[in-house]
Amino acid sequence: MTTMSRSRVLFVVVSGLLVGAFVLRVRSHLHRPEVTLKHPANATWDLPAVSPPSDYVAHPRVLPAEQNAGPDRIVSLAPNITEILCALGLRDRLVGRTPYCLHPPEIGSVPVVGALIDANFEKIKALSPDIVFVTSNSSRSIAGLQQLGLRHEIVPHDTLDEVYEAIERVGRICDRPETARELTAAIQADVARLTISPDRAAAHPRRVLIVLGPLPVPPSAVFVAGPGSFLDGLLTMAGHTNAAADSVSASHGEISLERLRLLDPEIIVEFRTTVTEQLLTNLYQSWAQVGDLQAIREQRVRCVGGEEHLSAGPRIALTLFHLRTALGSVD
Predict the structure, then answer these.
(1) Which residue in 192, 175, 191 sits closest to 62, CA to CA?
(2) Cβ atoms of residues 169 and 181 within 8 Å
(3) Average pLDDT along the chain, 331 residues, taken 10 residues at a time
(4) Structural domains of the chain, with CATH
(5) Which of 36, 78, 104, 272 is the most exposed place for a label (fewest CB within 10 A)?
(6) What is the full DSSP assignment across 115-143?
């Protein structure tokens, strides 16, 4: 993984919302083994016997009594916070965002003010925000905002419970508490509907490694979801276990190639926007050189979707749906 990709991973993970722009750099190597794909890139996996949940970020449901409530000028310094604000119907109140706030697509018209480690405080001040939202681990941003005397509010992140807590906190602060409560209830209902029952989950659990981004080519150490993260929780709800649960002490961490060989996951889950047969062929050929990894040998690398699914926000039920879909067919 390149230094640039690694720093982006760290930013998004520690803010509970990995939305960096990862780039897969596929290199040609001589004497690679020939690979015949068992599962073509355009294969249709066994879909869950349920319908996909709504994308509340793109399609907010605001109670009529609260449609005019809330601050007029808001700056968000984290992608999950941006998504929460959009899901509460406050998209038109956003005047500043990070470069990693990419969903919904219309958010691209909002000015960028930096991110967790490089916030442009003078630019933020010039926007005259009524309020700036930051995540609880943003100590540098919090200190800078305090120095400027700008009102800021801290939002929890990372775990599934904190997703709901963050939505309701932002809803209260923005005078949309009932909209926030209904949003939380709708997401919880979607998650419950998509969760595999314990008896069914026990029948075919797999050890799954969740890579935070695309699996790098050529192979290098990878950042993975650890115990307690929202992705770890979603994986359990999908009926599987986290292969890195005993190897990462925090909600995310780096796994070396040596450690990865010892873990030998049955399935590797990754996140990327586009998957092609040629890309998968290159990936399996390259990773076959690392050692006898079951997930590579059996061609069990599954893509859940783009980086937008790495945000601990209102789209977690949709991420669970895509996770179940990706893991629905394991030979």
Answers:
(1) 175
(2) no
(3) 46 44 34 64 54 94 96 96 98 96 92 89 96 88 91 91 96 98 98 85 82 95 95 94 92 94 96 92 95 95 91 95 82 41
(4) 3-53+199-326 (3.40.50.1980), 64-194 (3.40.50.1980)
(5) 36
(6) -TTT--HHHHHHT--SEEEEETT-HHHHH
